Amino acid sequence: MPLEFGNTTIHFPLIINFVIFIAIIYLLWRWSKELENRSFTIFLYFLISTYTAPLYSRSTSNGGQFELWFPLGFAFILIYLYANKKNHPAKMKASLLGLAVAIYKLIEVYRDLLF
C-alpha cells in the first residue's frame, strides 16, 4: 500500500502479511512458554527451518535457467530432532511452522519463474 507525500513515497506491507507476522510471533511466544528452560530456542528452530536453498541448478542452451529449491533448514532440524531423542512437541510445532513459511517462500520463487 503506497502512501505518497509530494515526491516521497512510503510503501507499507500488505495487511494480510502483517496479520500473519503477528500470528506467527504470538504462536512462537506461546510455544516458548511450554519449555522450562532456554525458551528462546523455539525462535531458533523456527528461523533455521525457514531456510530454503537451490538443490539443483541447470542452464539451458536458449538462455534460461532452472533451479530446484528445497527447504534445507527444515530437513536439518528434522534430522537433528530425530538424532537428539530429547525433542519437545513445541520444538516440532515451531519447525513445522517454519516449514509452512519455507513452502510459502518456495511458492514465491516458482511464481516469479512462471509469470
Structural account:
With 115 residues, the protein is α+β, with helices and mostly antiparallel strands. Helix 1 (15-32) packs antiparallel against helix 4, helix 2 (41-49) packs across helix 3 and helix 2 (41-49) runs parallel beside helix 4. It is 57% helix and 18% strand. It has one domain (2-114). A hairpin with a 2-residue loop joins strand 1 and strand 2. The strands form two sheets. It has a two-stranded antiparallel sheet. The chain is flat and about 50 Å long.
Alpha-carbon distance between the two ends: 22 Å
Number of helices: 4
- Tertiary shape: flat
Structural class: alpha+beta
Order of helices and strands: EEHHEEHH
Q: Give the overall average pLDDT.
A: 88
As a percent range, the share of helical residues equals 55-70%
Low-confidence stretches: none
Describe the largest sheet. Answer: 2 strands, antiparallel
Could you tell me the strand content as a percent range? 15-25%
Radius of gyration: 18 Å
Strand order of the largest sheet: 1-2
Number of strands: 4
Give the SSE map.
Elements: E1 2-5, E2 8-11, H1 15-32, H2 41-49, E3 53-59, E4 65-70, H3 72-84, H4 89-114
Antiparallel strand pairs: 1-2, 3-4
